[in-house]
Amino acid sequence: MCMSVVCDGRINKSASPHTDTLTVQEPVASLKANKVWGALRGLETFSQLIYQDSYGTFTINEAHIIDSPRFPHRGILIDTSRHYLPIKSILKTLDAMAFNKFNVLHWHIVDDQSFPYQSTTFPELSNKGSYTLSHVYTPNDVSKVIEYARLRGIRVIPEFDTPGHTQSWGKGQKDLLTPCYKGQKQANSAGPINPMLNTTYTFLTMLFKEISKVFPDQLIHLGGDEVEFDCWASNPNIQNFMKKKGFGQDFTKLESFYVQKRGISAQPLFVGFCD
């Protein structure tokens, strides 16, 4: 096969779509692409045109195919907090994505149920927040997934959802979550991340600084969905904080306050939010 590529190996969310032209005609097949990822997809097409006949001979029919993606974002989401996936399974998923020319792995890596991401800055998050110490993703594991994906033209976008969906975070980070109250007494439970403490944003700044170095993609998904306000409403300290800020009883304003300060903590990252 002869290939001609305008070599651009960056996986960029804003990059223009690639196009590849595959021509199979005796005596040779040719593949032309305007980006290296187009060549990668064209080779995938070529491999899927080959079949084995009844005599065991590998054969390919003549063809002329011009291909380009309809959608720039062709993704799949995996949730490794609720259901831990071994690295081997994640790599198989990436292979399946490559077969189908998908290009984004959305890795919902942590949630209420467990915190399998092994942080070098805050190791107690996974030490106490994972299902077991065997159900974690080490820095080497994460690096392996990212590189395996890159070689297949797939971006890896991690998701660290806050202020809700963080019960597992609180196991390894003291005073991160909001204490819930039952009447005048503190209950033995916690709610979303505590938005009134400066220590919250110091922690987030340090954590996201690490995450931005581990995951090279321009985007980190920060969630923001399904925040339950009952615990915030029960906490007298939160109530006093809201009065001082002029929020009244509008907890969406408190959430917005948190989101804005969290956004500052995550800068200069490009971040994604979920309504």
From TrEMBL:
Location of the Beta-hexosaminidase eukaryotic type N-terminal domain: 21-49
Entry keyword set: Cytoplasmic vesicle, Disulfide bond, Glycoprotein, Glycosidase, Hydrolase, Lipid metabolism, Lysosome, Signal
Active-site residues annotated for this sequence: 226 (proton donor)
Signal peptide interval: none
Enzyme class: hydrolase
Xref: Gene3D superfamilies: Chitobiase/beta-hexosaminidase domain 2-like, Glycosidases
Catalytic activity, as annotated: a ganglioside GM2 (d18:1(4E)) + H2O = a ganglioside GM3 (d18:1(4E)) + N-acetyl-beta-D-galactosamine; N-acetyl-beta-D-galactosaminyl-(1->4)-beta-D-3-sulfogalactosyl-(1->4)-beta-D-glucosyl-(1<->1')-ceramide + H2O = a beta-D-3-sulfogalactosyl-(1->4)-beta-D-glucosyl-(1<->1')-ceramide + N-acetyl-beta-D-galactosamine; N-acetyl-beta-D-6-sulfogalactosaminyl-(1->4)-alpha-L-iduronyl-(1->3)-N-acetyl-D-6-sulfogalactosamine + H2O = alpha-L-iduronyl-(1->3)-N-acetyl-D-6-sulfogalactosamine + N-acetyl-D-6-sulfogalactosamine; beta-D-GalNAc-(1->4)-alpha-L-IdoA-(1->3)-beta-D-GalNAc-4-sulfate-(1->4)-alpha-L-IdoA-(1->3)-D-GalNAc-4-sulfate + H2O = alpha-L-IdoA-(1->3)-beta-D-GalNAc-4-sulfate-(1->4)-alpha-L-IdoA-(1->3)-D-GalNAc-4-sulfate + N-acetyl-D-galactosamine
Recorded superkingdom: Eukaryota
Enzyme Commission number, as recorded: 3.2.1.52
InterPro entries: Beta_hexosaminidase_sua/sub (IPR025705), GH (IPR017853), Glyco_hydro_20_cat (IPR015883), Hex-like_dom2 (IPR029018), HEX_eukaryotic_N (IPR029019)
Pfam families, per database record: Glyco_hydro_20, Glycohydro_20b2
A GO biological process held by the record: carbohydrate metabolic process
The keyword Disulfide bond is annotated on this UniProt entry: yes
Keyword Signal: yes
One cellular-component annotation, GO: membrane
Annotated compartments: Cytoplasmic vesicle, Secretory vesicle, Cortical granule; Lysosome
GO molecular function per UniProt: beta-N-acetylhexosaminidase activity
Domain Glycoside hydrolase family 20 catalytic, first and last residues per copy: 71-261
Subunit composition and interactions: There are 3 forms of beta-hexosaminidase: hexosaminidase A is a heterodimer composed of one subunit alpha and one subunit beta (chain A and B); hexosaminidase B is a homodimer of two beta subunits (two chains A and B); hexosaminidase S is a homodimer of two alpha subunits. The composition of the dimer (isozyme A versus isozyme S) has a significant effect on the substrate specificity of the alpha subunit active site.
PANTHER family: BETA-HEXOSAMINIDASE, BETA-HEXOSAMINIDASE SUBUNIT BETA
Family: Belongs to the glycosyl hydrolase 20 family.
Purpose: Hydrolyzes the non-reducing end N-acetyl-D-hexosamine and/or sulfated N-acetyl-D-hexosamine of glycoconjugates, such as the oligosaccharide moieties from proteins and neutral glycolipids, or from certain mucopolysaccharides. The isozyme B does not hydrolyze each of these substrates, however hydrolyzes efficiently neutral oligosaccharide. Only the isozyme A is responsible for the degradation of GM2 gangliosides in the presence of GM2A. During fertilization is responsible, at least in part, for the zona block to polyspermy.
Protein name: Beta-hexosaminidase subunit beta
Organism this protein belongs to: Fukomys damarensis (Damaraland mole rat)
